[in-house]
Each structure stands twice: as C-alpha cells, then as structure tokens.
Amino acid sequence: MKKIVVVQLVLFVITALTVVPYGIYYIVGPTGVGDRINLHATVDNALGVGEGTVVTYRGVQAGMVTGIGFDPETRRARLDFALDGDTRIPVDSYAKITQGTMAGMLNVDIFPRVDHGPYLTDGDEITMPAEEQPTQISETLARTADLLETIDPAVISTVGQELGSAFEGLGPDLARLVTDADRISAQLAEDAPALAELLDRAAGLTGTMAENSTEFVDGMASARTVAESLQANEDRIASMMATGPDAMRRADEAIGANQESFSAVLANLGAVGPVISDRSAALRTGLDAIPRGLAALESIVHGDRADFALIATQGPACYYDNPRRALGDTSPIEPNLDYYCPPGQDLEQRGSRNAPRPNDLGLGGTTPGTVIGPPVVADPILIPSGTELLYFWKSLLEGNTHGTR
C-alpha cells in the first residue's frame, strides 16, 4: 500500500472520530450522550408540540420532548421531557409553551420561581398552569373575526367622512406642526446633556425628600400653620401694609439725616466684629449661663431683703505656668501626665492639666506645681449692708437709753 494512501486513511479515521460524535451531539442534543433527567407534565392544549420539540431552561436549551400522549386520569395532554443530567431545576418551577422563532417554531420553556433548591429529580412532574400558556393562533383568529363582525361598515364610513371634514384645509398647519416638532426634536437633542443633568438632580432631590419625608411633612404642617395665622391676621397685615410706606419714608429721612453717624457706627462694628467672632464660643457660653445665674439670684432674696456675702479668699491654689492658646482654638490637647500637684490642706487644684495621675504611674518623674495665694481664712469676715449697720446702731442707742433709766 502506498504511503499517501496510509496517510489519507489515518486522516479519515481522525476526522470521523471527531465529526461523528459532534454530529450525534448536534442532532440528539446533550441528552443523547450522557446522563439525563426524565420529567413529565400535563397541559390542557399541546397543539403544535411534538416529539423533538426543544425544551429550554431560562432560555437556554436543556433537552427535548421525548413523548406526547393523552392522560386518561387528568384528561389532559401528557408531555415527557428528557433534560441534560446536570440541569438543576428548582421544584418551585413551571413550564410554558413559547414561540422560539419568528417562523412559529414552538418551545417548552421552564421558568423557576426561586433560585435555590430543592431541585427536581428523575421521574418528577413539573406544573404547566393553564393561565401561563399562550393563546392558540386559531383561537386568536376566531376572536378577531368575532370582533370584526361587530363593527358596522357604515359607522367606519361615517368616521372616515368626519375625519376628512375635520382635517380639510389643515394641510399647511399640519406641515408647520411637523416642522416645529422637528425643530423641537433637534433642540432636545442639542440640550440632551443639560436635560440629563437636570433629571439626575431631580432624582437626587426626590431621593432626599423621600429620606426626609417626616421632616417634609412637618415643614408642610408648619407652612399651613403660618398660612392660617396670616389669614387670621389679614386685617392687621392690611393695616400694616397701608401704614408701612409712610413709616419707611420717615425711617429713610432719619437715616439720611444721620448718615455720617451711621457710617461711624458701621466702621466701629467692622473693628468690633473680629473681636466678637474670636470669642463666639465664650459668648454662646455666657448667653447660656447668664439666664441661669439670674435665676439663681432669686435664692438670696428673703422677703423684701437680699443677702449678699463677700468671700475675700478661698485659700491657696496649685497651677502650672502654661502658654495660653489663641482665642477660638477649641482643638483637643494631649494631656501632660508629668504634671502633678501635691495634695495639701485647703489646696485647690484647678484645670484639666492638674488632674491626678493614673494610679499605675505613681509619682515618679513628675513636675510639682506652684502653690500661690494666702491661706484660707478660718472665719470669713462678712461685710454688713447699710441697713444692717443702721439697725445695729439703733440697737446700741436703745440699749444705752434703757441703761440710764
């Protein structure tokens, strides 16, 4: 045998071993060359479905119809399916007859309701609900014919005549309408980026309003309350609007006459503004503490008199000479654990820097603070008021007078 014949024979065998299995796989599908799952279902009408109809799962071919017949128990059509063995179909799934191509070829498509197990096994039944099945073309044509029979040709003729009369002479207007629509379309296309940005912002605003729906409702309720108050005071508002222009005129005259004074005041405010802004935190604290202090002053009132006591000294205090921070600087400060004020009788320790050291650090490596101030007074001297001095003087005079008697 010639060498060329041997080479051709070997190539033929290799080609056959490659093409024949692929052809079998292409013709019979995956169920013909491996494990398969056999399922069955019953349907009211299986018209158009036969052996070899493709079965898909989520739109992907997974097997085919292997048998079709009549089930005497359910009196419905029975379909047998052979699916690829590795197809995992949840038990909660249903089958539906669908149109696979534009030519009218039908498929049986399986739709899962969940994406987890348990899964169908060999011999199980899959449901084919009647409400999920498509309407047959014959039934559709019959319904269409019934609908057309209910339409009176004379009515259609009348409608046509009326439409013709309505649009008669409107050709130029319709042409302008089409032209304007074309211009509007071109303008919309030109402004598409701006419109897209506007829609994005509107979506963001809508989302923000949804997230703050409670505050939005409260705001609308407050707005309604304000509107009701304005309506209730309509007469007063009308009077104010009537007298307001004259008052504004007089105010304008006063401002014009004192223009130089107002200029000086504004200039001074420009110098005072930075000082106040640097001390905004202190001002907020003062505005919060002053009302409480005024309320506390009520505690010194006894009847028609007020008791005042001046304490001249409270004893020595321990402090560290630390640099002062700039006004308005509220940033946190790292505490210095080397600072320590030794305890002493009547010794006041002030400031966070003089806080006691943690117990596990002891006193090693500490820097004692400086003690200043006179010792505490054992019996503070109370300065009497003028009324108390007058009362004391009268008591002395009355005592002396009684003594001479």
Automatic annotation (TrEMBL):
InterPro entries for the chain: Mce (IPR005693), Mce/MlaD (IPR003399), Mce_C (IPR024516), MlaD_Phospholipid_Transporter (IPR052336)
The Mce/MlaD domain, residue ranges: 39-112
Membrane-crossing segments per the record: none
Pfam family, one: MlaD
Domain of life: Bacteria
Domain Mammalian cell entry C-terminal: 120-312
Region (Disordered): 342-368
PANTHER family to which the protein is assigned, alphabetical: INTERMEMBRANE PHOSPHOLIPID TRANSPORT SYSTEM BINDING PROTEIN MLAD-RELATED (PTHR33371), MCE-FAMILY PROTEIN MCE3F (PTHR33371:SF16)
NCBIfam families on file: Mtu_fam_mce (TIGR00996)
Protein name in the entry: Phospholipid/cholesterol/gamma-HCH transport system substrate-binding protein
Organism of provenance: Rhodococcus rhodochrous J3
